[in-house]
Amino acid sequence: MGSMLLHNLILHAERTSASRPAIIDGASVRDYRETAARIRRAAAGLSGLGLAPGKHVAIIDANTASFYEAYFALSLAGLTAVPVNTRLSPPEVRFVLEDSECAAVLVGKAAAGLAETGGDRRVLSLGDEQDSDWNDMIRSSAPLETPRGPQDEDSIAHIFYTGGTTGRSKGVMLSHRNVVSSAMNKIMLGGFARDDIWLHAAPMYHQADAWAVLSFTALGAGHVFMPSFHPARTLHLIETLGITGVQLVPTMVFMMLAQPDAERRDLSRIRRILYGSAPMPTEMLKRAERGFGNVFQHIYGLTEAAGTVAATPWPPMRGEREDPRMASCGQPIAGVDMRIADATGRLKPPGEIGSIQVRGATVMRGYWKREAETAAAFVDGWLDTGDLGHMDEDGFVFIADRARDMIITGGENVYSTEVEDVLYSHPDIAEAAVIGIPDPKWGEAVTAVVTLRGGADLTEQALIDHCRKRLARYKCPKSVRFLDSLPKSAAGKILKHLLRNPA
Predict the structure, then answer these.
(1) Which CATH number is 415's domain given?
(2) How many domains are there within the chain?
(3) Do 156 and 80 contact (CB within 8 A), yes or no?
(4) Is residue 299 part of a domain?
(5) Which of 213, 355, 374, 460 is most open to solvent, judged by the fewest CB atoms within 10 Å of its CB?
């Protein structure tokens, strides 16, 4: 496959899987030969815009075939991609474009309303429509035969902006080595193959799915793009297109299972459902397996490490759902070192909670233009994930909480995930989040924010009593708030800062 440059993955697929289906859109199928040719032409068109190698180009689009092409075309043209969350407000998008110093912007149809944020930058319409600037550029350009450079494995391939849920958004610089290593590490999880058809349901502008663009291209597998998640549409695509794999967050899984015709769907082709971004309590996982089968794998990762750093074993530990290790987020994947330590780097013994820290070829080059924050993110060369957890003797990692989400009440530490697991064990609970609310007596009061399953009628006291049967009293919610839905990020993470400080 040659050196670890992102565009070498599509060039490899062009050589080894030319006639295999690359992009599947219902009855329309585009093979890797045609897909690579389009990408070469797009790269030539980008070069013709006068963009010097090393310049940054934003992509603002939903999951589409042209977004897929843009990832590789930008790399071939020697440019750095800045994928932008389409759910951001215009001022937030403007901040990303200005902070990252983007020279041009590719804007898809789904994000057309954000086009004006480009300012004096070159703005091109990205899309599969015949009249898009992207297709015009492909039609009018000769294929780029030689990648533009200079580029090496340490060149910045992507700048992904963090969600900004805890403060000002930061640009995570990921090198070619970072993202290609991440793609290879995912393949090394095992069980992925050339005959896979991957459904891009998680956002491609996020590490939740960007890895899949690369991994399944390297394999020569098929890609199906879903611009936005819809549970009924997802079930339809799985059934009619023979989808074999997808990555979801737990909320999405249960939205699909709640569809009235879910049990009648033929979902037998699904071989793998990866889930992450949020924990799936044991009771919820058992429900999901009754609907989809034993196909679930928990993955844990972060943007600063180009995605996944740990995963539960594959194939799943069949018949071992009562094994306490199944509540973990798995073991460090190949190519990633992981340790549990304190803020000074002192190692914690097995079973003792500390900061989860990682190192390896996937760990970021740093935060764009933020040297002090980059330095603060590392401890003796190890990236501090910002998560608290412990590791057992076999390397299974158990996340206790985000460091910022841990609740200190009456001098005791309460980990929200432990309380949420108990809340989810109640049959009437659909979603749950546990937060700390300032309290004059306790410092912070444990507070549950929940949504109920359809038709359920549950009182605050009944839910608190449910917790008291299973948890120490200080860990139990002091109060319960009932909402119709919980606020979430584009990656499906529940936004606890909005629950603590509702607008």
Answers:
(1) 3.30.300.30
(2) 2
(3) yes
(4) no
(5) 460
**pLDDT for 150-190, tens place per residue?**
789 999 999 999 864 444 689 999 999 999 999 999 999 98
Q: How far is CA 462 from the centre of its chain?
A: 35
Residue partners of 329: CB distance under 8 A and separation at least 6: 276, 279, 298, 299, 300, 310, 311, 312, 397, 398, 399
Query: The CATH number of the domain where 171 resides is what?
Result: 3.40.50.12780
End-to-end Cα, the chain, rounded Å: 50
Report how far residue 109's alpha carbon sits from residue 126's, in angstroms, rounded to the nearest whole number. Answer: 7
pLDDT at 481 over 80: yes
Whether residue 22 lies inside any domain: the answer is yes
Report yes or no on 11 lying in a domain. yes
The CA dihedral of 140, 145, 151, 154, to the nearest 10 degrees, is 100
Which range has the worst mean pLDDT, 58-62, 210-214, 257-261, 440-444? Answer: 440-444
Contact status, residue 118 vs residue 97, Cβ threshold 8 Å: yes
For residue 415, give every residue at least 6 positions away whose Cβ sits within 8 Å of its Cβ, in sequence order, or none.
Answer: 353, 388, 400, 401, 406, 407
pTM of this prediction?
0.84
Domain edge (last residue) among 228, 252, 286? 228
DSSP 8-state secondary structure symbol assigned to residue 303: G
Torsion sign over Cα 339, 340, 346, 349: negative
Q: What is the pLDDT of residues 270-313, one digit of tens each?
A: 999 999 866 677 777 888 888 898 899 999 999 999 999 999 99
Range of the domain at 163: 7-228
